[in-house]
Amino acid sequence: xxxxxxxxxxxxxxxxxxxxxxxxxxxxxxxxxxxxxxxxxxxxxxxxxxxxxxxxxxxxxxxxxxxxxxxxxxxxxxxxxxxxxxxxxxxxxxxxxxxxxxxxxxxxxxxxxxxxxxxxxxxxxxxxxxxxxxxxxxxxxxxxxxxxxxxxxxxxxxxxxxxxxxxxxxxxxxxxxxxxxxxxxxxxxxxx
Length: 192
Known about the structure:
The chain is an alpha+beta fold. The chain has helices at residues 21-28, 43-52, 64-80, 95-103, 126-143, 175-191, and strands spanning 31-32, 37-38, 82-83, 106-110, 116-120, 149-151, 160-162.
């Protein structure tokens, strides 16, 4: 199993995305529906995670509105992802993505070999760190790795995983976890 960084929401992650897309995957998985936990719910916990993940500098501050934008952005990006069976084809609310795209500033960076890359022009606040996530998504859309980031089809789970299967038909949860829960729920509904 690939080891994920300490800031990843679940140290036992078995299907991590490659870096830097791993940062987007981690951001999306800060909300764990099954455990009813949200690393971005409370400001102190959110600050710790955002700093550890490199999305907020230690000296930076953020408001309740900034944290609300982060949570809305998380769900907006999650809505862009496909599940392994296409079970959630709803149209995502793109307003948080658009808002962040409008306030963010990008610049070109040239490495020692002349390779150009796009990066955030500033890192003053939480919005700048979140803008970095949009730049990672843009690069992943261009290199084809974005389509491999998916969500579990179980509406009670929705964990984000990276599909490394050759035909991109991989599943996050196995039958012993989500599949078994769904079968039991269906059985109870039929019995009622």
